[in-house]
Amino acid sequence: MWLVTGPNMAGKSTFLRQNALIVVLAQMGSFVPAESAHIGVVDRLFSRVGAADDLASGRSTFMVEMVETAAILNQATPKSLVILDEIGRGTATFDGLAIAWATAEHLHEQNRSRALFATHYHEMTALSERLRGLACVTMRVSEWNDSIVFLHEVAPGTADRSYGIHVAKLAGLPGPVIARAQAVLSALEEGREGHKPLARIDDLPLFAHQLPAPAAAAPTGPNAVETALAALDPDTLSPRAALEALYALKEKLAAPG
User: Fold this and answer.
1) DSSP, residue by residue, the chain
2) Fewer CB near the last or first residue (10 Å), C or N of the chain?
């Protein structure tokens, strides 16, 4: 069993689906996208990926997830391949972690299935010290300029952060929301060290991000970039001249003052 950690959008779900498809290709005698591969016979492929409710049957997203997980635990064999994507995310944190933890243990000890188990519960990485057949891998990311770059590579180890706020920023959430989330996250993380997180959050300035920004000084005239732009005639520029003009404007923009 591989326990796969990493931030959202890093490719965990894609990695799970990719391996399931590779097994299907191998079973039918097809080529697989690898220099070499040793894949044993698989009697059944079980998948618990995605999130959707079942309104017609009156089942919530979490109930659908639990029904499908129950089917896997009741039917998977040592020759099966199981892919599980973030089991337990549809309920309270500790309940979800407890269910995911117990599911991983049961798959390892009772079903003994080959499995890929993606999770955001970093606490589960402690299972690698308890279960001989479980290894931790992570989706690699690189931090750059207060942002993250997804490398789409799988490497041994564990993710130390979820980068949820970074992903929210990439998605385009408003700046005040991101700043507020970072402040709340800091308070919650301090709460893990014995503080009272809710009290800390209540102390945060709720409307601080809505204060008007100081008025900028009124411009006294066109700056160097505006003057250079006004002097350009796009209709008479050759492609080379246009490129040179663009570089000149960029230098003016970067110049102090």
Assistant:
1) -EEEE--TTSSHHHHHHHHHHHHHHHHTT---SSS-------S-EEEE-S---BGGGTB-HHHHHHHHHHHHHHH--TT-EEEEESTTTTS-HHHHHHHHHHHHHHIIIII--EEEEE-S-GGGGGGGGT-TT-EEEEEEEEEETTEEEEEEEEEES--S---HHHHHHHHT--HHHHHHHHHHHHHHHHHTTTS-HHHHHHHS-TTGGGSPPPPPPPP-S--HHHHHHHH--GGG--HHHHHHHHHHHHHHHHS--
2) C
Give pTM, 2 decimals: 0.70
Domains assigned to the chain: 2-170 (3.40.50.300)
pLDDT of residue 76: 96
pLDDT in tens, 136-160: 999 998 887 777 888 889 999 988 7
Residue 48 has pLDDT above 80, yes or no: yes
